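Message: I would love a firmer grasp of how sequence relates to backbone shape in proteins. Thank you; the sequence and its tokens follow:
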Amino acid sequence: MSLPEAQRRVQVANQKLIRDLDPNELVEGVFALHNCQLGQTKTGKPFIKCMLADRSARTPGRMWNATNELFRQLPTDGFVWIVGQTQPYQGEMQIIIQQIKAVEPSQEELQELLPSTEYDVEEMFAEVSACLRGLTHPPLRVLGEAYLQDEALMARFQRAPAAMVLHHAYIGGLLEHTLNMLHLAEVICPLYDDLNREVVLMGIFLHDLGKCAELEWATGFRYSDEGQLVGHIARGVIWLQAKADQCAAEGTVIPAPLLQVLHHIIVSHHGTPEFGALKIPATPEAIAVSMIDNLDAKLHMGLAATRWQDRGTEKEAVLGGHFTEKIWALSTRMYRPDPTTVAT
């Protein structure tokens, strides 16, 4: 069932992307495997359920004729070679797996399998850097420069995904998400005269920076030991205190009230305890960062679920109409079309 590595490399480079797959199409190739689980049918038979992904998209995978022995040979998160067939199910496409085997992808294969931002990373980072260096409040500008001079951290910032699955889950996703939020803030802040724009901008830069340590992406997306034990919120607070101490040692003290508010933005940006916030946003600037974060994340998820490819009406009919299956992070099924393009 295995393929010689050289043959597999050629196949991965030429295999059809998930986003381009049609219903009832034969699939053979190497894919990233996420959250592989062993379930049971209503009749008690084991089956494998997972998510399959390449650089273009993710889709559910199911293998009905599975065994416990086969399941034990597969990683929970990793890479697999599969043979299967696409099948429409509840408004989405899934792959019914007929054969599956764990593989170790080459660096060339990883470039085809790991999703990456469509934008220029150097240009995005230059824009973020210019934003921080353009701050007029001296301690904030010095604090921003302390981060920008941390070459190792900034190298990870430019490549880190923003999440494992939900939004901007691709190489460069954290940088893209941060820049999107900075753009949104530049539109929103002028509408509120008493909102401190520069605190909002610094808070946006800091809010998810801990994901540079929380996530690993060199051989597939996974949580690091740091991510499992500490998490990005705590790591972000630890880094901020260290950078503030560095600034003080170099002659610029970050005022205690300002430092507290920046800490608060990091610990409160998830909004509510049910979504992981340690505190509910309690300053106007913290509210702004949390809401802008939520806006960019949810819009990205909604658009990715509905308009990531040009779906014709024939394909929508095969998939089950205009609506996706329920997207749990959004608590609803999404309506796919741009309403101005739907025939009446």
About this structure: The mean pLDDT is 87.
